[in-house]
Amino acid sequence: MAEKKYQYIYGPVSSWRLGVSLGIDPISQKDKICTFDCPYCQLGKTEKFSAERKIFVPTKAILEEIKSVPPSGIDYITFSGSGEPTLAKNLGDLIRGIQKFRNEKIAVITNSSLIGRTDVQEDLMLADLILAKLDACSHDVFRAISQPMQGIRFNQLVKDIKEFRLKFKQRFALQIMFAPVNQKYTQEIAQLAREINPHEIQINTPLRPCGVRPLSEDEIRDIVNCFRKICGDRMMIANVYEASRKETLPLDSEDTIRRRGDQQ
Ligand code: SF4
Fold first, then answer.
1. Rounded to whole angstroms, what are the CA distances from 221 to 152, 205, 218?
2. Which residue's C-alpha comes closest to atom 2 of ligand 1?
3. What confidence tens digit (pLDDT) does each residue in 122-153 have?
4. Taking a C-beta distance cutoff of 8 angstroms, is the pair 185, 137 a contact?
5. Cβ proximity of 201 and 176 under 8 Å
6. Looking at the predicted structure, is the pLDDT value of residue 188 above 80?
7. How do residues 53-94 score in pLDDT, each as one tens digit?
8. pLDDT score of 245 more than 70
9. Spacing, Cα 110 to ligand 1 middle (Å)
10. Taking every annotated instance into account, which residue ranges of this chain make up the domain Radical SAM core (predicted)?
11. Mutation test of ligand 1: which of 46, 49, 134 has the most ligand atoms closer than 8 Å to its C-beta?
């Protein structure tokens, strides 16, 4: 029925981080295209690594689809989907285009790998909320949990996040996925989070089937307590087990599940 009506947008999904979120997939290719190969990724293995920005879907085609979605009940229009959304060279044009005819806030979920680039920063500055991934505290842990493509160095990535955080005037959240492989580095990751000083820290664990064991509620509670100690009581810390979700009815359920690589 509605199966092929929407090619580039999905949801709305009930996101523990964003309320009701209408997803935009500016990559929308058959295979995921990303700079990372996170073992917990809902999209499977990364077969196509790329750090090259290009236009995957014409701006007009995506804007036309969004125009046809009724605005009711949507909290955020969120760039995510089948790969790293900052790889889309038309990200800025898309955000500007959406802002002309929609009132919802705009979020971008990024793995932070391109956040140091001037052109990417210019695009991200247009958004209301950036959710930036940081799952590690050293290059070795980064290699284990994010499996980045060659050339991406952890120290540079952290430096880039810190610089962007200082420049970005809207809401900035750090999203951290915890699994057995980075659990023992909780203190070091929390220390880095403190230095970055986001508006919010979102602690996640892969609850949907993906071959990586999710941490239990107790384990996540210990992690949150550690973050609280290191980042202070005033830091807003959300975690996937305690977040509430709103009821939603996706435009196309199967397609929506397929595209949610970052376990929103
Ligand atoms: S979880 Fe996100 S960053 Fe990691 S491989 Fe999947 S799309 Fe890329």
1. 31, 12, 5
2. 262
3. 999 999 999 999 999 999 999 999 999 999 99
4. yes
5. yes
6. yes
7. 999 999 999 999 999 998 888 999 999 989 999 999 999 999
8. no
9. 9
10. 17-247
11. 46
Q: How many CB atoms lie within 10 A of CB 225?
A: 12
Q: In CATH, what number does 2-175+247-259 get?
A: 3.20.20.70
CA 13 vs. chain centroid, Å, equals 14
Chain centre distance of CA 92: 17
Q: Which residue has the higher pLDDT, 114 or 81?
A: 114
Report whether pLDDT(254) > 80.
no
Amino acid letter at 197? Answer: N
The confidence band for 194, taking pLDDT boundaries of 50, 70 and 90, is: very high
| Ligand 1 atom nearest to CA at 35 | 8
What are the helix (H) ranges across 34-185? 59-67, 91-101, 118-124, 139-146, 154-167, 180-183
For the entire predicted model, the pTM comes to 0.92
Contact present, 181 and 145 (Cβ < 8 Å):
yes
Tokens at 27, concatenated = 């990559």
Ligand 1 geometric centre to CA of 171 (Å): 22
